[in-house]
Amino acid sequence: xxxxxxxxxxxxxxxxxxxxxxxxxxxxxxxxxxxxxxxxxxxxxxxxxxxxxxxxxxxxxxxxxxxxxxxxxxxxxxxxxxxxxxxxxxxxxxxxxxxxxxxxxxxxxxxxxxxxxxxxxxxxxxxxxxxxxxxxxxxxxxxxxxxxxxxxxxxxxxxxxxxxxxxxxxxxxxxxxxxxxxxxxxxxxxxxxxxxxxxxxxxxxxxxxxxxxxxxxxxxxxxxxxxxxxxxxxxxxxxxxxxxxxxxxxxxxxxxxxxxxxxxxxxxxxxxxxxxxxxxxxxxx
Length: 285
Ligand SMILES: O=C(O)C(=O)C[C@]1(C(=O)O)C=C[C@@H](O)C=C1
Fold this sequence. Notes:
It holds the Pfam family CM_2. With 285 residues, this protein is of the alpha+beta class.
């Protein structure tokens, strides 16, 4: 009996020592991130680097071993990086929560952690405006749906200047289903910064065509321009034109010659092509 409780005490002292080391490392990591913040351009409006975060998470999930559950590991690092992004610059999160419940707030909390303020907005359009105006550092908006009456992503295709862009897709690791909830919530994070190249990314390209063309024709235009694996994730039909939101399985920037080929290959049909961001591929279990 005594021996057992002695052994237990010893193990618990080891656990205390490990907790102290973890805690010390966390404080040391915080000090390093403060140095990273000083090295960033002062006019950077948001400290968030979704690509770097994705690379960290991929590296850790690959080296992970043993019985500690991977979703718990991801959650701990989400909390750490979420906390540290807001220590570098003021950080606030605009969340679209159009329906009852708090599915998108949960997604935002799982990704950015518990620390920073989250403000609920009734529509994705409000969130886009809040981020564009600098009222919020990032926004969480539902993934586009085919039958959206007023797709929020259209406002990311128009105009110039520092428009918000899609930078992340949530959740970064598929969540366990919640009993009683029909569908998992999924969202895009938008911010006034370009999406990052992590070597495993998707890019979102809005293509405006006059007149309307079929999806098959659109896919053929992408293929002819040298862009494979383009799938449509949203559409908007106006009186004299159609806008497709296509998702491409690679990292593409606005100056990519393939986009010029896409416009040229469409002769007069493709009026406008615009990248509205992209995101690192979500973690695979
Ligand atoms: O590497 C950076 O740029 C950081 O700001 C550090 C850090 C991190 O905690 O590792 C924090 C926030 C960023 O979104 C990405 C990574």
